[in-house]
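Same chain as my last thread, 257 residues:
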Amino acid sequence: MANAPAAAQALALLQLLARHAEPMPGAAIARQLGLPRSSTYHLLGVLSDSGFVTHLRDERRWGLGVAAFELGTAYVRQAPLQRIARPVLARLVDATTHNAHLAVLHGRDVYYVIEERARGRPSLVTDVGVRLPASVTASGLAMLAVLPPVQVRALYPDRGSFVQRNNLGVTSLTALRSELAQVRKRGYAVETSSVTTGFASIAVAVLDHNDRPAAGIAVTYPVDDAPDAAALVDAVRSAAAELSTRLGRPRAPADPR
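reply #2:
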């Protein structure tokens, strides 16, 4: 396909702008993409004509345009993440016989978008549409552990940024960093009674094609009816890996051992 390289360059340009909080000068865009300035400005012109980027003439910078916003809102309307994830969570519930849910990170909160309830299990506070502080939930900790440290620091600039629940949860950036280090070391996050007294959760982050946290998958179970922890971790990890692959992340190489 003759236009494939140009299409790839246009997508790379849009992704670059999306990763930056502020519009960028054309020269910086060219440098970061490794493209000649002439090619970069040609791409910017084409994308500007279609509304995907906009030129801020007074600032001599380029930012995302209205068409990019329209794509984002269309994604929300179509809810592809929920459509892709629901059968994965249903199989996870069947395998574990415990409630499972999917949450996305929204600032310092997690927002629950799917709850799959196991037969005979009680409903939980983590229902669809509920928001909870990310630092007290297993799903939130799993996703925060994948973010760059500078982004975590930006989310939690001071002690006032932290919210406890049931008198549980970290209250400082130092404590949060320590908790996230443990999550990365284990490969999964845990919480006990910080969301609902008497219940615990195990969660794993779902990664997109850029290894960014697209969501968190968690299973919640009664503390007094604790399942086989190793089997539960394996089931949640498997579900998160499957959903990551469905979202476009390359499969991890098989362990040679």
